[in-house]
């Protein structure tokens, strides 16, 4: 099977950011340089052998979120990235990906990368908190 050497990794990151102690997700206005609060952000990451998916820290402009990143593969032809924004919206988009949320809430987004045979070769998910 092509994915025999795949890696599944659960990453727990501690980042410094401002805001209320309401859990572990990113909010508009959060700053990694703020010493006010340390939160735990849980993300998941999967990549096949020879594949690297890197998502940048989300940027916020009101309810619009922009996520940039890179995907590299030495063995696969990258065909598409599917974004599930956690609010029922699923779409194909390259980097940077943008989405506007209708309601302020806590969401879990994911980016799934497929090769030209329709095989999932990488995936990453993280929380986004737009709650008031």
Blueprint (SSEs and pairs):
Blueprint: E1 7-16, E2 38-47, E3 51-55, E4 59-61, E5 64-67, E6 69-73, E7 78-84, E8 90-92, E9 97-100, E10 106-115, E11 120-129
Antiparallel strand pairs: 1-2, 2-11, 3-6, 4-5, 5-9, 7-8, 7-10, 10-11
Kindly describe this structure.
The protein is built from no helices and eleven strands. With 132 residues, it is mainly β. The N terminus is likely disordered. It has one domain: Immunoglobulin-like.
| Broad shape | elongated
Biggest sheet details: 6 strands, antiparallel
Q: Would you list the SSEs in sequence order as H and E? A: EEEEEEEEEEE
By DSSP, the count of extended strands is 11
CATH class label: Mainly Beta
CATH H-level superfamily = Immunoglobulins
Could you give the order of strands across the largest sheet? 1-2-11-10-7-8
Q: How many distinct domains?
A: 1
What is the helical fraction, as a range of percent? under 10%
* Distinct helical segment count: 0
Uncertain residue ranges? 1-41
Features:
six-stranded antiparallel sheet; Immunoglobulin-like; three-stranded antiparallel sheet; 0% helix; 132 residues; mainly beta
Brief synopsis:
This protein has 132 residues and is mainly β. The protein has strands at 7-16, 38-47, 51-55, 59-61, 64-67, 69-73, 78-84, 90-92, 97-100, 106-115, 120-129.
